[in-house]
Sequence to fold (307 residues):
Amino acid sequence: MSRAIRFAPLLVLALIVGALIWRLVTPSDSSVHSTLEGKPVPAFDLGPALDTKPALRSRDLATGKPHLVNVFASWCVPCIAEVKVLQQLKARGVSVEGIAIRDRPEDLVEFLGRNGDPYERIGSDPQSSVQISLGSSGVPESFVVDGAGVIRYQHIGPVETTDVPMILAKLEQAR
Amino acid sequence: MRWLLALLALALSAPTFADSNLPPAYWSDRQLPDARQEAEAQALMEQVRCLVCQGQSIADSNAELAGDMRDLVRRRIAAGEKPAAIRAWLVQRYGSWISYKPTAEPAAWPLWLAPLALLIAGALLIRRRIRR
Fold:
């Protein structure tokens, strides 16, 4: 047996340990990305989530200007912080539309009353069906939809203050 | 000590509020009246990955979103849609990741070819030993 081949097991071990260390240092991204980026928003027609606010249909998104569609819920904790950032975006002239997942009107009223209300429209999605048809896997998520109703960007997790310039840029690109 | 326990119990109770206040979707935990359709739905649900508990199928998962997906699958099967079409609809949205059924996409070729390559290598090795 040649001398070099004796070291082969050691080399294999080093490779395995190296791979393990690499994965520990850079954990894999477990978020599920929608494959609908670059494709039109699937047709939907949601009922109103509140009596005081218009409902949301896919038609409302193809209006010639970009929209930020926010998938949220009153029972979602990160949404509390996010809704304040969405208000900053609204103050900058962004049309923010909401899809409320598995929500009740009374809970929504309390949630919006306490944390503020950036939404122009809110559609109620009591069985997550529109959420699934968008390829979204949780709350909160946001979609940048351009004026033609095409999904340009999916944001997984809450939009944070530091994301505002990026979201504004994505909306500008979608114009 | 009792206080500490109570505080600990409170701290651990947070996940209770991580779900919505709505009851599960109608077909999420209810079998379809037609046994053949229910079997079709069940077979598909066992091959669809849960988006929340990513190691589980939607048939196994207790996540609300999994319940909503079971409702969606059963509704569509009851409406006469083929399981393959429902799977394709989901793959269109979430990518082939969502389905546990192995695909024939180029990315999966090494998976199919590796056992063959190993078998051939093994056979060659044995042949060399026997000849010697």
